[in-house]
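Reading a protein record of the kind used here takes only a little practice. To see the layout at work, look at the sequence and tokens printed below.
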Amino acid sequence: MNFLSHFYFDRNTPNANIVLGTILPDLLKNANKSWNVHPEKHAELFEKNGLDTLLQGWKRHLQVDLLFHSSDFFTSKTQDLKQLLIPILKDSPVRPSFLAHIGVELLLDHLLIEHQQIAIHSFYDNLDAVKDDDLADFLKNCNIDDTELFFKFFNGFKSSRYLLSYQKLENISFALQRICMRLWEHPFTEKTTYDLTSVLEFYKIQLEIDFMVIFEEIEIRLT
């Protein structure tokens, strides 16, 4: 799941550290894809007040992703979108299965916003409320020495308010292109981008019918 979908499950949590923890695994990967840390395996290092709640959110992220990716919903929805993407990606290096996976996740974020299930400003307010010292200590206990690199990315992530762009469907195509550009130099032609937006507009109508089912299922199973 993407940032806002993770936030959905803790949208009413009063602790900002928990909220940040729920998206921190993805933030780290976006800041530096070589960072591969597992603080959940060393919980004793995070017993200090502030760090324990960041770890609580981190564990929540892992549980939500496991439930989502093992669900029938994920399997069927990504397969449906993949079939729609195959024809428009025939001249692209991008794998339809990869794009379908990310596409479903971004569309879920978009639908949460459109159906007023979350408040994006509340999401960013929580991130702004986290103490830098707590976050820096958490990173150091994860053996991440270059905290300056992370904070440069994190502060940019907060200040850009980039997720506000997910309110418009056409921006989902742009976001998918940016993600693909991390892996492929020229993932899409101009026509591919246009066709991708058309596919997403068509598929959104199908996904919108029952998209809340997966959130309800996961919420019931969360511990």
Q: What stands out?
A: The longest helix spans residues 51-69. The chain has a mean pLDDT of 95.
